[in-house]
């Protein structure tokens, strides 16, 4: 049976440490890290994420600013708000919750955020920094996955890693981080031929495709470390529940270690958002 990687517990410890550093920063430099979160529209899942991000920022004694804009908001209004937050010295990190409604060009919005306040690590300056080994902001979910992997495995050098999914938010930055740790990295996606065989070769399997229970246990190399990024809402036996991209019940018999859903990667993403906000505040007042 696989070891269950307890992301919830790890994230709680990380948030407690961040909280201590926030207090130290305030005492030493009279600065309180400030996180601004913008939600456009009423998507229920996004509302839950944004509420949790703001609440956990407050629990770490950061300043938290929440902006809720209607679904039909013109792009110019959103860009104006970002300009205002870019210039606000109390705001060190700006997060625009994705996805955005169709009248808004997400790329323009991301590009409008000051790179040093882009605590998502989505701005091209930060994407380029990650690709070239710089010290820009790293996207929160891949950063959280990497912390869990290193905590569990230690040195990742030479291990074969398969990243299932090629999104800008998770798949691509995840692959870059694994490469940085000297893994041999494959990125698989919807057009990959022989996906089951690709998965069976992997010592580390990162599933980030958003398809419930897509990876069955018999695709997993015995003893492999499985990081399940999927958060899929399904209905089962008349009840709503969350499941990952990996079929947990069959995978747990083959894998060496696996993250559960919920309680695995999800809590780490928010903890890393707070970490990125703290680091942004330190840099802006360095
Ligand atoms: N939507 C889903 N994941 C994310 C994330 O990491 N950041 C933002 N801004 N939106 C998201």
TrEMBL record:
* E.C. no: 1.5.1.5, 3.5.4.9
The protein's matches in InterPro entries, at most eight in alphabetical order, are given as: Aminoacid_DH-like_N_sf, NAD(P)-bd_dom_sf, THF_DH/CycHdrlase, THF_DH/CycHdrlase_cat_dom, THF_DH/CycHdrlase_CS, THF_DH/CycHdrlase_NAD-bd_dom
Biological process terms in GO annotation: L-histidine biosynthetic process; methionine biosynthetic process; purine nucleotide biosynthetic process; tetrahydrofolate interconversion
* Catalytic activities: (6R)-5,10-methenyltetrahydrofolate + H2O = (6R)-10-formyltetrahydrofolate + H(+); (6R)-5,10-methylene-5,6,7,8-tetrahydrofolate + NADP(+) = (6R)-5,10-methenyltetrahydrofolate + NADPH
A GO cellular-component term linked to this record: cytosol
Q: Where is the Tetrahydrofolate dehydrogenase/cyclohydrolase catalytic domain?
A: 5-120
Pathway field of the UniProt record reads: One-carbon metabolism; tetrahydrofolate interconversion
Keywords, alphabetical: Amino-acid biosynthesis, Histidine biosynthesis, Hydrolase, Methionine biosynthesis, Multifunctional enzyme, NADP, One-carbon metabolism, Oxidoreductase, Purine biosynthesis
As for family, the record states:
Belongs to the tetrahydrofolate dehydrogenase/cyclohydrolase family.
This chain belongs to which protein, by name?
Bifunctional protein FolD
- The organism encoding this protein is Denitromonas iodatirespirans
Q: Which gene encodes it?
A: folD
């Amino acid at each position: 049976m696989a070891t269950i990687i307890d992301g919830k517990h790890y994230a709680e410890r990380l948030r407690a440490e961040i909280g201590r550093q926030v207090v130290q920063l305030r005492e030493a430099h009279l600065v309180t890290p400030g996180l601004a979160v913008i939600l456009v529209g009423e998507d229920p899942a996004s509302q839950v994420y944004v509420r949790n991000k703001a609440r956990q920022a407050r629990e770490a004694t950061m300043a938290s600013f929440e902006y809720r804009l209607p679904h039909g908001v013109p792009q110019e209004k959103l860009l104006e708000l970002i300009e205002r937050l870019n210039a606000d010295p109390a705001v060190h990190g700006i997060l625009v919750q994705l996805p955005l409604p169709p009248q808004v060009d997400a790329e323009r919005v991301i590009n409008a955020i000051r790179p040093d306040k882009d605590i998502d690590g989505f701005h091209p300056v930060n994407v380029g920094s990650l690709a070239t080994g710089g010290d820009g902001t790293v996207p929160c979910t891949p950063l959280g996955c990497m912390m869990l992997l290193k905590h569990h495995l230690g040195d990742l050098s030479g291990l074969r890693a398969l990243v299932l999914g090629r999104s800008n938010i998770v798949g691509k930055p995840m692959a870059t981080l694994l490469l940085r740790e000297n893994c041999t990295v494959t990125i698989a996606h919807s057009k990959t031929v022989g996906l089951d065989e690709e998965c069976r070769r992997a010592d580390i399997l990162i599933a980030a495709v958003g398809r419930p229970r897509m990876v069955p246990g018999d695709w997993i190399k015995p003893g492999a470390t499985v990081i399940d990024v999927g958060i899929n809402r399904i209905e089962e036996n008349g009840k709503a529940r969350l499941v990952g991209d990996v079929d947990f019940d069959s995978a747990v018999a083959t894998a060496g270690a696996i993250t559960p859903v919920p309680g695995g990667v999800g809590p780490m993403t928010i903890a890393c958002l707070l970490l990125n906000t703290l680091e942004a505040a330190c840099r802006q007042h360095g």
